[in-house]
Amino acid sequence: MDKYFIIDFDSTLTRVEAMDLLASISLQGLPQKAAAEARIKELTDLGMNGEISFRDSLKERLLLLEAKESHLPPLIELLKKQVSISFQRNKEFFKQYAETIFVISNGFKEYITPIVTELGIKEDHIYANELLFDDNGKVIGFSEDNPLSKDGGKAEVIRKLDLDGDIYVIGDGHNDYEIKAAGLANKFYAFTENVSREKVMKKADHIAPSLEEVLFENKIMSAFSYPKNRIKVLLLENVHPIGVDLLEKEGFTVEEYPAGLDEEELAEKIKGVSILGIRSKTQVTSKVLENADRLMAIGAFCIGTNQIDLEAAQERGVAVFNAPFSNTRSVVELAIGEIIMLTRNIFDKAVLMHQGNWDKSASGSKEIRGKKLGIIGYGNIGAQLSVVAESIGLDVYYYDLEEKLALGNATKLDSLKELLQTADIISLHVDGRPENKNVIGEAEFKLMKDGVIFINLSRGHVVDIPALKSNIESGKIKGCAVDVFPEEPKSNKDPFESELKGLPNTILSPHIGGSTEEAQENIGNFVPNRIMEYINTGTTTNSVNFPNLTLPRLQNAHRLIHIHKNVPGIIAKINQLFAKHEINIAGQYLKTNEKIGYVITDIDKAYSKDLIKELRAIDHTIKFRVLY
Ligand SMILES: NC(=O)C1=CN([C@@H]2O[C@H](COP(=O)(O)OP(=O)(O)OC[C@H]3O[C@@H](n4cnc5c(N)ncnc54)[C@H](O)[C@@H]3O)[C@@H](O)[C@H]2O)C=CC1
Ligand SMILES: O=C(O)C(=O)COP(=O)(O)O
């Protein structure tokens, strides 16, 4: 049985209402322009929602237009640029299915025909109204014999067409739904890529945020192997609006949640989610991942990824991305500020001032120039702090587990012990790996100089809090700044509890080391782009748990992405299948790490469905997907 597709023009096939565009051209320079345009828009919506008779709306709009034949060519030029994005992507569909695609519109043939024939739609499959002109080329009305000039016109046209097969209507207006209401269509798809009309969506059999959704539903090959609107994104912890916007513009269905979620909540919420976005708080445990039935990628919209069970994610074929440098500078600037504030005892003095006490004295207040700064963890933040600190006169020492290049005049120390014994100011910038729990405890505090300044902007669990507290109370630590805590409130509404509250010269901040507008904006841009690259091309550059592969753009081929356990013989099995099916390989890329293998194969577009089934069925396959 044939499937016929009936497609609306205005706001469906094109992103705009052609009459609105025509108005802005024809009313150009006329005094009544603004008022007439507003009224035209109002009449269009009233008509679309089925609130006034179509013919009345059309008549009144045409009268307001002052349109002439000479306005049509510029209108057509503008409309050509306004073909809906997903229609532009799927030109192949219009060519292949030309026999069964019809455009039925209450707009006018004069501008519809040049646009839709360019897509490959047949001229005799276009049904629309026709303009009437006077001798001077002025639009004076429309042909009233045309059924499309009146209510119920679309249904009448379909009835007359007497198509032998299933009929699917794709449109954004009430008049499109009417075809289904008249019993003349199998399904009405409310097309919401350009406009979403609540009233129309309620009546629809199916909401189609893009043409791909319709094609996917009808098992027709489209520009994407999977409609993007079916990719559900869950963003927690107030991800920057730029990030939300990028993911929405990509066509994904995005749900946002301002706070973190605990394990139980996330284990529920994660079902059906393809992309998860979090910041430092949300723990993505193996229990959460067990329920992650559709998860492809996790974006950590921050630097640290210790909150994610990276290994469990990898074993399930879930790629994790972060923003390794986007908030580095912000943390460094806070550290510098705090070093100065603590060395001058400003925090306590400010509190006293607010209580009405004036304590002008130099006692215990020092310059930072020439003091020894000890940085533990000389990664991106530690190294950047080294450079900035040195430029304002600090003498920098550092210790890192790994061999790191000393920047500027910084001195590398070979042991933590040596660093703790040397520094006047200690700043912690290690990552949050589990082995770093209590890396600084009683024994380490004991090694420090009396009157040391101690700063932790890394992770809460790396410092033994009771030991820190007693060393502040004893005066061993003269000043302390802590931005991160073993237990942090889930949201701004929850109370903050810590043994460190109320201690002298102790700056406590609510994990805001990386929370500057610049950093959040940078992160909001960086992470979605890595994720979209991964989803669209398979590129894993910057992934923290996947073998990193930067792939060329896919050209005239299908890309098969195979993620498997790294056991011997898998590549051989994959390639045996290609040989068996006589597949021409356009390119193959492979990278493995200890646990998984990541193989990308670009192949010619023609191949049997069995190949896909057999590739999926290879033992130790974790995930498999096709891109085109
Ligand atoms: N407070 C905040 O808002 C922010 C906190 N952070 C935290 O800062 C951490 C560091 O960030 P980056 O410098 O970008 O990471 P990074 O990975 O570039 O550097 C971490 C360095 O610490 C070293 N390291 C790890 N454990 C160590 C140990 N026990 N002793 C000595 N060295 C050790 C590593 O070898 C590495 O060089 C992040 O992992 C994150 O937890 C990051 C951004 C913002
Ligand atoms: O970047 C990091 O690792 C941070 O700790 C910052 O985390 P946040 O995004 O502020 O929750």
Structural notes for this entry:
It is a single chain. The protein has 628 residues and is α/β, with parallel strands linked by helices. It folds into 4 domains: 216 residues, Rossmann fold; 91 residues, 3-Layer(aba) Sandwich (Rossmann fold), CATH 3.40.50; 188 residues, Rossmann fold (3-Layer(aba) Sandwich), CATH 3.40.50; 80 residues, 2-Layer Sandwich (Alpha-Beta Plaits). Helices cover 36% and strands 19% of the residues. The protein has 25 helices and 24 strands. Strand 11, helix 15 and strand 12 form a beta-alpha-beta unit. The longest helix is centred in the C-terminal third of the chain and has 21 residues. The chain is elongated. The mean pLDDT is 95. 1,4-dihydronicotinamide adenine dinucleotide binds next to helix 17 and helix 19. It is an enzyme of class 1 (oxidoreductase). It comes from Marivirga salinarum. One of its GO terms (biological process) is L-serine biosynthetic process. Catalyzes the reversible oxidation of 3-phospho-D-glycerate to 3-phosphonooxypyruvate, the first step of the phosphorylated L-serine biosynthesis pathway. Also catalyzes the reversible oxidation of 2-hydroxyglutarate to 2-oxoglutarate.
Which fold name corresponds to the CATH topology of the largest domain?
Answer: Rossmann fold
Inertia-based shape: elongated
**Bound ligand species:** 1,4-dihydronicotinamide adenine dinucleotide, 2-oxo-3-(phosphonooxy)propanoic acid
Q: How much helical structure, as a percent, in the residues?
A: 25-40%
Number of domains: 4
Q: Radius of gyration, Cα only, in angstroms?
A: 32 Å
Q: Give me the secondary-structure category.
A: alpha/beta
Write the CATH homologous superfamily of the largest domain: HAD superfamily/HAD-like
Estimate what percentage of residues fall within beta strands.
Answer: 15-25%
Number of strands: 24
CATH class call of the largest domain: Alpha Beta
Pathway: Amino-acid biosynthesis; L-serine biosynthesis; L-serine from 3-phospho-D-glycerate: step 1/3
Protein name: D-3-phosphoglycerate dehydrogenase
Keywords: NAD, Oxidoreductase
Organism: Marivirga salinarum
